[in-house]
Amino acid sequence: MAYSIAVLPGDGIGPEIAAEAVKLIEALSEFGFEARIETGLIGGAAVDATGDPLPPETIALCDAADAILLAAVGGPKYDRLPRAQRPETGLLRLRAQYGFFANLRPALLYPELAEASSLKAEKVAGLDLLIVRELTGGIYFGQPRGIFTGEDGERYAVNTQRYSESEIRRIVRVAFEAARRRGRRVCSVDKANVLEVSELWREVVEAVHADYPDVELSHMLVDNAAMQLVREPKQFDVVVTGNLFGDILSDIAAMLTGSIGMLPSASLRSDAKGLYEPVHGSAPDIAGQGVANPLATLLSVAMMLRHSFDREDLAARIERAVGRVLADGLRCRDIARPGETVVGTVEMGEAVRRALHEVD
Ligand code: NAD
Fold first, then answer.
1. Would you say the CB of residue 344 lies under 6 angstroms from ligand 1?
2. pLDDT exceeding 90 applies to what percent of the chain?
3. Separation of 313 CA from ligand 1 center, angstroms?
4. Atom 6, ligand 1: which residue's CA is nearest?
């Protein structure tokens, strides 16, 4: 059976890196993975063509797809548009449309790129951690919220941190399942010494853990987690946390790798459907030059195979192929140091496809 994948190239470097992702998916047919790929408009490209950053045709395409791959949206040309027409609004609507509540952001540092990190190479070489962030609940969505004026005439503001047991249960399950495919360790991050929400969070995490006796569980307060991430990041395997803490910790983890052109992400829900995208944006400063690093997008394809199509074998093959290409010394401009071989977007994509056959 051929799977259906919606590819949304978007803006800036988006079309260039999406093209390499499409070629990679097509190359996987040699390894027994058949997919029907349909391309749709999103972001500025969609605004130019239809006036809407997420037109109904794109939603219909994504409805019908088993998984969605998005490259990047945005650009200076669209910065002055009303909010509803901004490219980023299209992306936010897409995420909301399908209730993707689990955001998975691996921070993986290939040993060859350790010098790119802001931390000492020995602290991060071989780093491989996964942040699982709750994406549709918590303080970003809780009611009541707003800025009010009190009886004394002073203004005050309110946001509400709220999590139900079922919301906690489903994100924690995603983390335990992910840990089973990796190092079998989950660290749950909260602020249980201060917040009732975290008290409930911890209780539910413990209860869900009973179903995963093969996975080691630890708890860590968020302030300590932030410190540990920059002190000894390799102690972590899977980190699971709420929306607010996850927002901050996933950016810290991303920066440990020092190379934004390398980082993939997945946004998932309880069935296999998912949205896969590189962490970086549309890089308008280098768009159209053929120099963008396609690896974050190719690694997002690997996450798609792992999480939407249950093809761990092919996901791992792509990741090993990327490792092989880096070990061979090939670099895009963003990850190159003086003296290294710099290749463009197309050559890098080609090299990864070739390496698929060289790794086992
Ligand atoms: P950016 O990630 O696009 O670029 C930051 C820097 O990293 C730039 O110097 C860029 O050249 C470089 N870079 C990024 N990806 C690269 C790659 N694959 N290869 C080589 N170099 C790469 O962030 P920004 O400049 O703050 O934002 C540019 C536009 O992208 C804005 O319109 C912003 O709103 C949008 N954006 C979109 C997303 C998304 O689509 N998910 C995420 C972040 C920003």
1. no
2. 88
3. 30
4. 283
Give 340's pLDDT tier (boundaries 50, 70, 90): confident
Please indicate whether residue 280, judged by its CB atom, sits closer than 6 Å to ligand 1: yes
191 is catalytic: yes
Q: Is it the case that residue 57 has pLDDT exceeding 90?
A: yes
How many angstroms separate the alpha carbon of residue 281 from the centre of ligand 1? 3
Which listed residue (251, 310, 313, 328) is catalytic?
Answer: 251
Q: How many CB atoms lie within 10 A of CB 39?
A: 16
Secondary structure (DSSP) of 169-224: HHHHHHHHHHHHTTTSEEEEEE-TTT-HHHHHHHHHHHHHHTT-TTSEEEEEEHHH
**What domains are defined for the chain?**
1-101+269-360 (3.40.718.10), 108-256 (3.40.718.10)
Average pLDDT across the chain, whole number: 95
Dist. CA 282 → ligand 1 center (Å): 4
Cβ(264) to ligand 1 under 6 A? no
Q: Locate tokens 């919606």: which residue?
A: 6
Q: What is the pLDDT of residues 212-268, one digit of tens each?
A: 999 999 999 999 999 999 999 999 999 999 999 999 999 898 888 878 889 999 999
Q: Mark residue 74 as left, alpha or beta (left: phi above 0; alpha: psi -120 to 50; beta: remaining).
A: left
